[in-house]
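Table S2 (continued). Query chain:
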Amino acid sequence: MSLTKYKRMLMLGTIFGSLVVGYQYRRELIGDLSQEQNELYRHVDKDSNKKIKEAIRETRMEFLNKKS
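Corresponding output:
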């Protein structure tokens, strides 16, 4: 039994297997990055909401101080 007979199939199987493993790794990596990005957006939204609320509070205080 010689390997030359099955060499093409072994090469194609190796290439296909490496592509599958690479694709799965890429999907996991992209999933991790998108999860980190969503967490970052969540923090930015909380910070911006807090800043907006503080700005509204300050303008109300300024308005009340000017009025009285």
